[in-house]
Specification:
The complex is a heterodimer of chains A (281) and B (421). By secondary structure, chain A is an alpha/beta fold. Chain A has ten helices and eight strands. In chain A, strand 1, helix 1 and strand 2 form a beta-alpha-beta unit. In chain A, helix 2 runs parallel beside helix 3 and helix 7 runs parallel beside helix 9. Chain B is of the alpha/beta class and 421 residues long. Chain B folds into two domains: 198 residues, Rossmann fold (3-Layer(aba) Sandwich); 218 residues, Rossmann fold. Chain B contains 19 helices and eight strands. In chain B, the strands form two sheets. In chain B, strands 2-1-3-4 form a four-stranded parallel β-sheet, sandwiched between helices. In chain B, strand 1, helix 5 and strand 2 form a beta-alpha-beta unit. Chain B is globular. The chains are: A alpha/beta (281), B alpha/beta (421). The interface between A and B is large, with 43 and 45 residues.
Chain lengths: 281, 421
């Protein structure tokens, strides 16, 4: 029997709920965007790709950014099966309660979609993406690769080619995607999920915890360089530039910012810049 | 960023000495006195009141007697006034800077501090002003998460820059009873948390609620008067005056301003003296306008003889505030914001306004870097097309004059208006 997929556009969507409702969660990684006229040219290309794709697979967006909210609006206006989870930026008890109620609403939506009974027990989490080793081979220079959504996977090969290793791939679509859920008999399962997902490594959108997190990354991993790789017109990514730059300056770690379009490949300029950057380490 | 780096940026900025004057309350006091002597041509009373309001706010913010609270637009300013603080919105300050022709200098300062030119220029300009130390120093910062991501990030960065407390209020996406109750609880907890920072008192709440309701009554009446054809007011001016709604609600001065504006407009309607003699087409304006000196709105309204009958940002979509259920009514006001929540909310409002104000066409000013508004253009275009209402999407920038292509914009506007004829 063919799998029934649910596409998720944010790493804060609990995959456990989707699994339990009989669906298979799948990260929404659309092909490269084409011009549709639905979103302006100065817009995140990942969002433009999400709008370009149409299909019968239900999609779950979150309020993670303005662009994703608009993707939800556009796909909803086309009558597609889409859901929007309202994601808080903080992690206080009130926010956990709030996100827990949002997750309950999400489970109800999936139950209505699948005609399946509302769940009682949640299966354990299944990571969507492989996590990478956090130790670099002795002959390679350890670096951190960070951003929001990874614009193009080609960068990993490029780094490898120039004798370096990304010991931390800090992206929503990579190592930040999984949460460690601990259920308790005393607590509602939705609250446990909400707590676990809000506590996972913070994305650039999150308030308060992001800077301590990246500082810890830079200090504890012993990285010798940082590459911030962002999608053009991604506000969260753009606000990371002064943050990382300041941190790397204070820690005396070389820093490189690359900006690209979603699934646009590795232009020759990137080869030169990465090569030159790695030579400085 | 460390203080040494800021100092370097200030030294680099040549007009820094002039900007120093901006941080002195005495500058605004003198200007307030000068405004008393000023005799503007039309709308004498409300014009004076508008400028006095702005100068008074800046004077209060630069004076150190009351805590200055930085916040984003659409955070109800009455919340801060009621707690004894002075609300200061750097986005509004950015619009004023652009209007005075200083926008580019501040934008460059922000870009020099690694803030990308692809970010919203309201926030970039405000960051440049912060870097140049021309804004009143915040005692604390309160951000609300609705409207846009940029504001939340910008205010968070500012709190790091000024090393002051930062509070973020999560605004629920859905406008229902549960969300209102949750938000009311959050606002009430925040007020308790701020007790040690702001001199709040219960007495202020009933007073402030009464002022907001009185101003609201006048605003509704003003909006009603603007339905008259020919229109008694031009969009160019009303889009500037919106800052009173953002910053001054909750003060007696805002009530006075809206009362005077209503009186001015009533007189115009009564005397059959419209905003401009020729009003060929009535337009609805979406989003804000370019605040720097530019001929766009003058061209539409004066040269080509049309009128911006109304703008979506002036719509009163919120109900009266209740002193008995203060937090609940403020929460309801926030959640009624048409720019937050599902896109249909904004579409419904735009269609309603286009009908109520008998608009012949709708113009959306797509501000560079504003993802939340420009992302709606496709949906708005489809909805308006279905209703047979002509729609023009005009790309530009509210603050950064470098992103405004005059020739192209003028040609597009002219073609659109010709099509309406």
């Amino acid at each position: 029997m063919d799998k029934l997929y649910v596409d998720i556009a944010c790493s804060y969507v609990p995959k456990e709920i989707i699994h339990h409702m009989g669906y298979t969660p799948r990260r929404l990684l659309s092909p490269e965007p084409r011009e549709t006229g639905l979103l302006p040219r100065n817009y995140c290309s990942y969002a433009r790709a999400c709008v370009y794709t149409t299909g019968s697979v239900p999609v779950v967006f979150t309020t993670c950014c303005d662009a994703m909210r608009r993707c939800y609006d556009i796909r909803r206006s086309r009558g597609e099966a889409v859901f929007l989870l309202d994601l808080p930026r903080q992690i206080s008890e009130a926010h956990v309660q709030y996100y827990g109620s949002e997750l309950r609403r999400f489970a109800k939506w999936l139950a209505d979609l699948s005609d399946r009974a509302f769940f009682k027990k949640i299966s354990s989490g299944q990571p969507l993406l492989k996590t990478q080793k956090e130790v670099a081979p002795a002959h390679k220079k350890p670096i951190i690769l960070s951003g929001a959504v990874l614009p193009d996977e080609g960068i990993l090969q490029l780094i490898d080619k120039y004798e370096a290793a990304a010991i931390k791939v800090d992206f929503c679509t990579e190592q930040r995607s999984n949460a460690e859920v601990k259920y308790s008999e005393k607590e509602d399962k939705f609250l446990s999920l909400a707590r676990a997902y809000l506590s996972k490594p913070p994305c650039p959108r999150m308030t308060g915890r992001r800077f301590p997190y990246i500082r810890e990354l830079a200090v504890q991993t012993g990285a010798r360089g940082v590459i911030l790789y962002t999608i053009k017109f991604c506000d969260h990514g753009l606000y990371e530039i002064p943050l990382w730059r300041h941190l790397c300056f204070s820690l005396n770690i070389p820093f490189l910012h690359l900006e690209g379009e979603y699934r646009s490949g590795m232009p020759a300029q990137f080869h030169t810049r990465i090569q030159a950057f790695l030579e400085t380490i | 960023m460390n203080p040494k780096e800021y100092k370097k940026y200030i030294e680099k900025s040549s007009p820094a000495k002039i900007y120093k004057l901006l941080s002195s309350p005495y500058s605004y006091f003198i200007l307030e006195l000068l405004i008393m002597l000023w005799l503007p041509g039309k709308f004498k009373k409300s014009n004076k009141s508008f400028y006095r309001n702005g100068l008074m706010l800046l004077r209060q913010a630069c004076h150190t007697t009351r805590p200055v609270v930085w916040t984003n637009v659409y955070t109800p300013s009455e919340l801060i006034w009621s707690m004894g603080g002075v609300p200061f919105m750097p986005e509004v300050a950015a619009a004023i800077a652009a209007n005075l022709g200083w926008g580019t200098d501040f934008l460059k300062a922000a870009e020099g501090a690694w803030y990308s030119a692809d970010l919203c220029s309201f926030h970039r300009c405000a960051l440049g002003m912060a870097v140049n130390q021309v804004l009143p120093r915040p005692d604390l910062i309160i951000a609300t998460s609705h409207l846009c991501d940029g504001a939340v990030k910008f205010l968070e960065m500012s709190s790091r820059m000024f090393n002051c407390p930062y509070f973020l209020v999560h605004i629920p996406y859905n406008n229902d009873q549960q969300s209102t109750a949750w938000l009311a609880g959050e606002l009430s907890s925040l007020a308790k948390e701020l007790n040690y920072l702001l001199p709040s008192s219960a007495r202020d709440i009933s007073l402030v609620a009464a002022r907001v309701n009185a101003a609201r009554e006048q605003m509704v009446a003003v909006n009603e008067l603007r339905k008259n054809n020919p229109s008694p007011w031009q969009g160019d001016e009303s889009l500037t005056r919106i800052v009173i709604f953002f910053n001054m609600l909750g003060t007696p001065d805002a009530v006075k301003y809206y009362y005077l504006l209503r009186k001015d407009l009533s007189e115009r309607v009564k005397k059959r003296c419209p905003a401009s003699p020729v009003q060929k087409k009535r337009l609805l304006w979406l989003h804000f306008k370019p605040f720097y000196s530019n001929p766009l709105l003058k061209k539409i309204e004066q040269d080509l003889g049309n009128v911006i009958a109304f703008e979506e940002v002036s719509a009163v979509t919120w109900g009266k505030l209740s002193p008995e259920d203060w937090w609940g009514s403020v929460a309801a006001k926030i959640l009624s914001n048409p720019f937050w929540g599902p896109g249909e909310k904004r579409v419904e409002l735009v269609l309603k306004l286009a009908r109520e104000y008998s608009c012949d066409g709708v113009i959306h000013f797509s501000h560079w870097g504003c993802r939340q508004s420009t992302g709606m253009v496709g949906v708005l275009r489809d909805a308006l097309n279905q209703e047979g209402i002509p729609f023009l999407n005009l790309e530009g920038d509210c603050i950064d004059s470098r992103n405004f292509m005059e020739g192209q914009s003028m040609t597009r506007v002219e073609s659109f208006l010709e099509m309406l004829d």
